[in-house]
Design a protein that fits this description.
The complex is a heterodimer of chains A (133) and B (507).
Chain A: E1 11-12, E2 17-22, E3 25-30, H1 32-38, E4 41-46, E5 53-54, E6 59-65, E7 69-73, E8 78-83, H2 93-96, E9 105-109, H3 121-132
Antiparallel strand pairs in A: 1-2, 2-3, 3-9, 4-6, 5-8, 6-7, 8-9
Chain B: H1 2-10, H2 59-71, H3 93-99, H4 102-105, H5 117-134, E1 138-140, H6 146-163, E2 171-175, H7 181-188, E3 192-196, H8 206-212, E4 217-223, H9 235-244, E5 248-252, H10 265-268, E6 272-274, H11 277-280, E7 295-297, E8 309-314, E9 323-327, H12 343-379, E10 395-398, H13 409-418, E11 425-426, E12 435-438, H14 446-465, H15 467-471, H16 484-489, H17 501-506
Parallel strand pairs in B: 2-3, 2-4, 4-5, 5-6
Antiparallel strand pairs in B: 1-7, 6-7, 8-9, 10-12, 11-12
Helix pairs in contact in B: 3-12, 5-12, 6-7, 12-14
Classes of the chains: A alpha+beta (133), B alpha/beta (507).
Amino acid sequence: MADWKTPDNAKYTENDEWIIVDGDTAKVGLTDYAQDQLSDIVFVDMQVEVGDTVSAGDSFATVESVKAASDVYAPASGEVVAVNSALDDTPETINGDPFGAGWMIEIKLSDAGELDGLLDAAAYAKHCAEREG
Amino acid sequence: MTDELIVNKNGAPPPLEPLIYDLGAPGRTGAILPKPDVPEADLPADLLRDDLDLPEVSEMDVVRHFLRLSQFNYAIDKGFYPLGSCTMKYNPKLNEDMARLPGFALAHPLQDPSTVQGALALMYQLQEWLAAISGLEAVSLQPAAGAQGEFAGILMIRAYHLANGEAHRTKIIVPDSAHGTNPATTAMTGLEVVEIPSDANGDVDLDKLREVCGEDVAGMMITVPNTLGVFERHIQDIVDIIHGCGGLMYMDGANMNAMLGIAKPGDLGFDVMHYNLHKTFSTPHGGGGPGSGPVAVGDKLLPFLPGPIVTIVDEGDEGEPPLYGLTMPEQSIGALKAFWGNFGMLVRAFTYISINGANGLRAVTDHAVLNANYIRSRLQGTYPMPFERICGHEFVCEGHFKDADGIHALDISKRLMDYGFHPPTNYFPLIVPEALLIEPTETETKEACDAFVEAMLAIAKEAKESPDVLHEAPHVTPVKRVDDVRAAKDLILCCRVIPDWDAEAAK
């Protein structure tokens, strides 16, 4: 079975999103495990734009691969300050670099305390391994 | 066999059939028109075009072209097809004979009902049979296919709550193992989807279900047996929980092939369900269609049935047969389909039910479930399975191996084609990694099931010993591995570049 990258500086959801805080904003994307499960991603339908606010648990995008379409949920609440529009033309960037160039949105956190409820890298890696049986 | 297949891989691919535009020659035609019996006249010049890109071919060019194309197909009439009733089970040829009887095939939907009493009697009897099989009160044959049946069902649930002054009931609960059409239906009716997870055994998580139940719940949609192929062990609890909070229960009847004559949705407490006649009652579908998705309802939803439905308008007596007519239920959600549903499918389903009879339908399910469990038992231990329990008419295994890194369900499916089998459903249900959903149906013999199992076992061995054979499969089909990514991203579906395409696009 494959090993999936789970960078220590990220927090994770059970639905396979990551969030990495940098100053007072945070980038959000899909994890390495998620992109591996989805396989080749062919389309990203971003449902928010800069200036929108999202609440933790809101669906903000749909990612479509050759296997399935999957909603992506905000791990934390805040105002959207950037969306990765490069994914419109090159959605496969999520496959190649899920934690880097494959980021999806950047939000200004409204409650940093929400992050405490998320999984750390070790707990998330365990969550992935468990599902793989 | 394996060696031969590997060698074939390196041979030249068989030439693909040319497009019909590349056949023929200028001026060639396949028809001889009779001399006109009226004076010849020229067409108005402003209506004449010379830019139409039409094939110029003889009758034989056309016949051979389409026959060759048809030979590239794999069909259930050609071999084992583990998509099973999910797509379409074997269609007995008698069905086709009956659908072609002139009284059925040539009837016009606008004929006066008095002149099509036979067709209406057939529809009435089919409504009655489908109601009896479901254990519910009444049936409408209107919906064009299963998804429209779902749409009708949820509209009826909504209409029921509105009639009771409960407009605040806007949530439809859907398990995470559901068919994608269930949440899509809910969204189309303007209601809100609440997804709940399955537990470790593949059943609905009852604690999570209780948590979301409240007075805002309109109902729940659930497939029995569920899409994981297992019968919900707590179905009675689920029905009671939803009814307890005032919601109604919708059963997605896609998997009725595992229930015929064994359990009735009405007895389980369901308020409404749809059938897929093409799945359960052997009408053609799967890329051809059309489908047919009758809905059955209990007494609560009776007034809301989509219509028209067929009723007896005059009972008749010893000398006179009953007179059938078309009636709109009083608070009907309306018509969903032009005229009277997909009538040709109704004739086929009627034929299938009447030929099998009650005992025969029960035997259909017995054999479907037996075949699925036989194949499951033989693959267990070789293919990982999320739930090792008795299945219904289908089961899920996982198309990957701990000791064969890089092998996916897709590779196994593609390789099955080399062995002469149609692949099973891939990557559904979504909650099982690398899912392969296998359904043999009742018509397959033990020999056919065994041959499929032997191929699956051989492929599992190849996955570990020569994984590239799987990665590059299929090797012996007219079309090799297709580029799924390009197919999904490059959406030009036209078989031939349209002249002036660029100019059109520029506009």
